Amino acid sequence: MTFELSQFSAALLFALCASTVFGITQRQTPRDMMRYGAYCFSLFVAGVIAASWVMWFIKH
Amino acid sequence: MANARNTSAAPAKATPDTSTAVYIVTLSAWLIPGLGHILQKRYVRGVLLMLAVCVMFFAGLGMQGKVYSFNTGDLLDILGFVGDIGAGVLYFLARAMDWGAGNIHRAVADYGTKYIVVAGLLNVVAVVDAYHIAIGKKQ
Fold this sequence. Notes:
By secondary structure, chain A is an all-alpha fold. Helices cover 83% and strands 0% of the residues of chain A. Chain A has 2 helices and no strands.
C-alpha cells in the first residue's frame, strides 16, 4: 500500500499527530491539553508557511 | 532550640513508586502505543496517543519510508534505529513483515522515513507521560 501526499499535506499530517502527542503529554488538564495542542499545531503550520516563503525568496 | 529543631517532625520525602505495576505500565506503554494510559483509565488520552503514533507510523510506511534495522555503521543510521524502535510492537511488526524497505527514487519516501522515526520518538514521550502518571507525578 502506497499513497502520495503533497509536501504541504504531509506537513499538516505531521503537525496534527505531533501536536496531539505534545498536547496530551505536556499539560495536566484536558482544557490546557487542547489549548497547547492547538498552539503547537498553529506554530507548526506557521513555521511551514514561513519556511516556504523563505525558500521562495532564496530561489528568486 | 537545637533540641526543638531536632525533634520537630521532618516532612516525609516523596519516594517514587517503583512497584511492579509501574514497570508493567511503562513496558506496555512502549510496546503498544497508548496502552499505558488506557491501563491507567485515561481512555481518551490513550486512544488519541495510539491513533497519533499509529497513523504516523503507517503513513510513513505508506510513503515507502525506510525502517532501520540494528546496525553499527553510520551514526545517523544508528540514531534512526533508536528512533524506530521507540514505536514498540509496530517496529517489530514492520521488521517481521519485511515492510519499510525504503525507496530512494521517490522524494516523499524520505518524508516517510522521518515519519517512522518521529512516530517512535513520540511514543517515547508518551511512555514517559504514562510513567509520570503511574508514579503520581501527573494526574
